[in-house]
Amino acid sequence: MMTSRADLHTHSTFSDGVLSPTELIDLAYRRGVRIMALTDHDTIEGLPEAFATTARYPDLTLIPGVEISTDVPGSEVHVLGHFIDWQDQEFQRRLLHMRQSRLGRARKMVDKLAALGKPVSWERVQSLASEGAIGRPHIARALVEAGHIASVNEAFDLYLSRNGPAYVERERLTPAQVVEIIAAVNGLATLAHPRDLGQLEELLPQLMTAGLIGMEVYYQDYSPEEVERLRAVADRFALIPLGGSDYHGMGGPQQREPGDIPLPDEPVERLLALARERGAPQAL
Ligand code: AMP
Ligand code: ZN
Ligand code: FE
Ligand code: FE
Prior knowledge:
Blueprint: E1 6-7, H1 21-30, E2 35-38, H2 47-54, E3 61-72, E4 75-82, H3 89-115, H4 122-129, H5 136-145, H6 152-160, H7 175-183, E5 188-191, H8 200-210, E6 212-219, H9 224-236, E7 240-244, H10 265-277
Parallel strand pairs: 1-2, 2-3, 5-6, 6-7
Antiparallel strand pairs: 3-4, 4-5
Helix pairs in contact: 1-2, 4-5, 5-6, 7-8
This protein binds adenosine monophosphate, zinc ion (ZN) and fe (iii) ion (2 copies).
Residues 16, 41, 69, 135-137, 152-153, 156, 161, 248, 252 line the site of adenosine monophosphate.
């Protein structure tokens, strides 16, 4: 078993993960993770529970984080924010607005599925999302339960991916605007899972102008060759090569357990040093 000391990308029940923040942190700690970020989609609501849990683990550093997604022509761009000033009221209002728009979007996707002859109950989708930010994985799980398809991955492949027949776009925010939103609360912004972005090198200059400091290189099931290629891009743009498992607890062949990524200590130290320079309390 290979475990990195750090995992900078994880999800809990406060968005589309399966474990509560407490269960997630317990699991990561047991596996040897000592620096971890909770990066739920469009919400910081899991952080109070997460920070309460870390009281059990004096040698664990918890980084307050978030993941915000955007649609661009033909694909999606996701941005992580680490060491955000998560108690900022204006920031919380923005996230609340994003979560409300997720509700309308999910509802439209459920309508599209019904029109495609694959109905799922809206009540069931909402109850799978529970108190968390609703997203496509909740719809995917309802599709599996309804017997329309065999797995969450298949739901994405057939219906819910960016170019799938049941996909509905989110409200228009550009990737650069998302980086700015994160930077506005002293967050350190990292481009998430960039492997399949065709326009990666065209995108990076504008994101860096907006404040991007890192790019995920060590991610989930990325192969050594893919890591190598992305590492070279990060180096060329002087971005910190970061990464994480993106653990959701949903299974599937691409899933990696918390910390099960070849993320070296050195880039993590660079991230922590930057956070310290900016006075982030969790980095001191
Ligand atoms: P949403 O936030 O509603 O756009 O849903 C995005 C989430 O869906 C991602 O964070 C992943 O958890 C999940 N996801 C995206 N693509 C896939 C896929 N091909 N297979 C399984 N899960 C996916
Ligand atoms: Zn997710
Ligand atoms: Fe993502
Ligand atoms: Fe994620």
